[in-house]
Design a protein that fits this description.
By secondary structure, this protein is an all-alpha fold. It has helices spanning 2-13, 22-39, 44-53, 55-65, 70-80, 86-95. The longest helix is centred in the N-terminal third of the chain and has 18 residues, at 22-39. The radius of gyration is 13 Å and the shape is globular.
């Protein structure tokens, strides 16, 4: 399950931007979900509930990336690094869940 969460987080990194845009909101959502996932300590039912609760936000974030060229995805990734939540997301990913 950790791999699923980290994969989703990595995908959302590609969607990040600055200035509280939709893309930064995706980063913020990712950070929030990652923190929440850590608190349930592997309880699959609780993890599923968290995923379900955030499904609409994840779907919205995934759509921001749909149809983008590799160059556009790289631009989004560079913009992600400017979001306030990006450093925190990286920290959580390095710590592991």
């Amino acid at each position: 399950m950790k791999k699923v969460i980290l994969s989703a987080a990595a995908a959302l990194v590609l969607l990040a931007s600055c200035g509280k845009s939709e893309v930064c909101e995706c980063v913020d959502t990712t950070v929030s979900v990652m923190k929440e996932m850590k608190t349930v300590k592997g309880d699959m039912a609780k993890m599923k509930a968290i995923q379900d609760k955030n499904k609409a936000a994840f779907d919205k974030c995934e759509k921001l990336n749909d149809g983008k060229s590799d160059a556009d995805k790289k631009k989004l990734e560079e913009e992600a690094k400017k979001c306030a939540g990006y450093a925190e997301m990286e920290k959580i990913m390095k710590e592991g869940m």
